[in-house]
Each structure stands twice: as C-alpha cells, then as structure tokens.
Design goal:
homodimer; DNA-binding; Arc Repressor Mutant, subunit A; 230 residues; WH-like_DNA-bd_sf (chains A, B); alpha+beta; transcription regulation (chains A, B); HTH-type transcriptional repressor DasR (chains A, B); 30% helix; DNA-binding (chains A, B); 6-stranded antiparallel beta sheet; elongated; 37% strand; Chorismate lyase
Chain lengths: 230, 230
DNA sequence: ACATCATATTGGTCTATGCCAATTTTAAGC
DNA sequence: GCTTAAAATTGGCATAGACCAATATGATGT
C-alpha cells in the first residue's frame, strides 16, 4: 500500500514545480534532502525521473531548473524538417558513406549482399540543442548526394527531385530504448535515458524498397504521430 | 572519454547473457560485485537497465535470470486481440462505467460537456502476465455493452456488429512515459519503468469521433507498428 | 516419506558519505 | 572598473553498509 519513499519525494517536488514556471531554479539536492528528511540519494532518484519526463533540467555547478515539457511531433511520411516549422532547427551531417550491405541490410533493402549502400547519419537540433539521431540507408551509390542534399536540406525532396524516387509507402516500428553511451553523448543526455527508437522501411512509387532508417529521438521531447484511414 | 563504471559492468553482464540462454540464472548481485571489483549498488544499476531492456528478469529471493527479449507488435487499426495470435492471451475488464464528459474529454470526442461517456478499462495479459492497460472512451451510453463485449471479446468487432459503428480512421500518438505507482502495480513492473503510451482518436465511417483511447504498454515487451501508403 | 519450521540466500530499499567536475561567486590585485 | 585567481556551491558518480521481504534450503519431528 505504501509508496516507495523516492516516489513520495517525486510527488512533493512536482508540487514545487507546479507552483513555479519554466526556468525557475528549484532548491538544491542537499537542501531538499534536509527539508524532506531523507537522503540526497533518494532525492536524486526522484529528480532523475522528473528529468526523464521533461519536467526538470539540471546542470552540474548551476542547479536544477523547471523545464517546459512540450513535445515535438514526428509524423509518419513527413520528414523531420517539414515537421518542425516555427523552430530554429538545423541538421548536421554526421557522416555520409558508401558501405557494403551486410546480410540484414541486404534483406531490408532487398539488394544483393555486398552491394553498395549509401548511409547518411544526421543529427537533428532545435535552437542548437541536439534532439535526435537519424541514420538512413539507401540502396545504391547515389552519386552526388552530398551536394544535392546540401542544397535542399530534405532527403525525401532530394530523392524525388534528383533521383526520381518518390517515397509512397512506409512502415514504422516504434519502441522504447535506453541511450547507449555513444548515443547519449551525441544527444547530450545521460546514458540510459529513455528514447523513442523508430525503424522505418520506405518504398518508392514502384514498390521497391527505397530506404531503411533508424531514428533515435529523445523520449522527453518527442511524440510519434501516425494517422491512418481506409 | 571513459564510460560510466556502471555501464562497463552492464557490458560485462551482457557477455554473460550472450553465453547462456533464456531461463538461466546469472550470478547473484553480491557475487558479481565481488567478481567485478565494484559495489553492489553499481551492479544493481547495470542490472536495472538490462531488466528495462528485457534482457534480464529478477525475483526477490530467487535470483536474476536471462530473459527472452521478444517484443509483441501493436498495429494501428487492429485490436490487441487480433495481433496476439499464437499466444495464450486474455483480457480482464478492470471497469466499465458511464461517466460525465469533462472539458478535455468532450473536446476529444466532440460531444457536449457533461454528456454521457462510456469508459472501458481493460488489462491485457499473455500467459497470465499483465502486459498493457487500455482505457477506451466512447461517446454515449452504449447500453448492453458489457454483455455484447463479453460474447465477442473484441471492442471494435462489437462496435461494428452491435452498434453499427465502423472504425475507419484513427490517429495514434506514441510517446515514452514512466510507470506511475498505480500503473506499475497493475502491470507488475517497478515504479518508473519505461512504457509506451499511446493516445488514439478513432473516427467512424461518417467521420464522427468514435473512440478516444489511452494505452500503456510495457516498453520492454511492445513495439508499435504503423504502415502507411498514398 | 512427508509436513513443518528454522535458517540461509537473494533481491529491494534507503542511508550516509566521500570525492570529483562544472559553474558561480567572491576576493585580490592592478 | 576590470581582469584574474581563489573559494564556495552544485550536481555527478561511486562506495559501503544496514535492514527488510520473498524465496529456497535444510533440519527436524512424526
């Protein structure tokens, strides 16, 4: 019947959050521990969950602050760039290479094993803050993709205008995942931070596999939206 | 550059997992702590993440065991029951009441405030293990729903056959959430366990809002799948 | 053999503490 | 005033340990 002690503290801290507005600093961990007559460890566990839920943000040496829990929508079939209007968003190309398709990749893109696959890794940001990592895999060499993509920004737009590939169907698989050490570093979150992991297979106007994508989105900042009708 | 210490232990435990098969017991926390020359606290943090990822399962007094990380797919527009073929699944009705629509509910279902809304809360299980909580809200009293639903099992089938409501469009919003104390208890997971939270608005053949649903799915056991074409 | 009860084992929770790292604040020097 | 350096503050990370709760084990008695 009784709640875990850390959870009680979480509820009490939520009250503090409710009384203030985003940007306000809450009391220090040591002060909260003393005020609520508990250990700093327990307070930190409570705060950790509130950070994961996007209600708090903390910085070493500065303090812990009330955050704005708004979420960005990622829609099916619309690229990231189309969906983040109204924000100062940008996209950093982390890498664009041609690799040889392994067994799994070959199956996903329906190409022979060892054939050339183009891999594009991008970091998505909003107001300079990293929010998502997307790794797209395309069947073939796609010569000149670097330059064409640079000019347009949107991958799907580039595929359509330059390579005649019109993405017309897609299947997304959405699940939770915990940030691995390297992804956590790139995204600026703690190792183990919950993420939305999206795997997408997309097909062109002829029904051929055109893209296989893996996206990692900060769980506290994103919501995946899918609409369907028949 | 260096990895967090608990994360190193996580990788080492993953090696142990890789060498065995589901059901095998791994060494106790105290033994792992001694073997890896670290504290039990650090080992527990590593194990906690592996539990969240579905790689381990632990029981007080028994031990920690290698788990089978398979995930169940939840598809858009198909009910839970249609999707879990091959498993011994069942559904427990936690509650079926008629309530008055509040402001938010009224807006979501496009009905007047204070009008009657039917709320159906169900617990979804597989082989007796609770896996998901779904709360559906329907606009209107839906007399006899208890009996009709009992006979058919599937809500969408009941709506179609008995009430002439054919769900023909839906929008799902998928995000991560941490299990609150009561939901954690119902699902048999720890408080704070990552979940997939799905909000669905569904419309009938005339474009009228027919359902508003909130689902909580264990993040370690589910994957949301959405397919679209144009 | 079987059931019962005490004991040991194992995970669950919380505490107290130490030290490090990033940042802010204060003091010192010019 | 301004810059620079030292000190204090605050979160980050890991440790050791105490005690509890659930389960498994082994001893005991019949």
């Amino acid at each position: 019947m009784s709640l875990p002690k850390y959870y009680e503290q979480k509820l009490r801290i939520l009250e503090i959050i409710g009384e203030t507005s985003p940007g306000t600093m809450i009391p220090t961990e040591r002060e909260l521990a003393e005020r609520f007559d508990t250990s700093r460890t327990t307070i930190r566990k409570a705060i950790a969950e509130l950070v994961v839920e996007g209600r708090l943000a903390r910085t070493q040496g500065r303090g812990t602050f009330v955050a704005d829990p708004k979420k960005i929508h990622v829609r099916q079939m619309t690229s990231f760039s189309e969906d983040m209007t109204g924000y100062k968003t940008d996209s950093i190309v982390l890498g664009l290479e041609r690799i040889e398709a392994g067994g799994e990749m070959a199956a996903r893109l329906d190409v022979p094993v060892d054939s050339t696959v183009t891999r594009l890794r991008r970091l998505r940001r909003q107001d300079g803050e990293p929010l998502a990592i997307e790794a797209a895999h395309l069947p073939g060499p796609f010569p000149g993709l670097e330059i064409e993509l640079e000019a347009r920004g949107s991958l799907y737009e580039t595929l359509r205008e330059v390579y005649g590939i019109d993405i017309s169907a897609a299947e997304d698989h959405v699940e939770t995942a915990l940030a691995a050490a390297d992804d956590a570093e790139t995204l600026g979150v703690d190792t183990g931070h919950p993420l939305l992991q999206v795997h997408r297979t997309a097909w062109d106007q002829h029904g051929r596999a055109a893209e296989w994508m893996r996206g990692l989105y900060r769980g506290d900042r994103f919501r995946f939206v899918a609409r369907i009708s028949r």
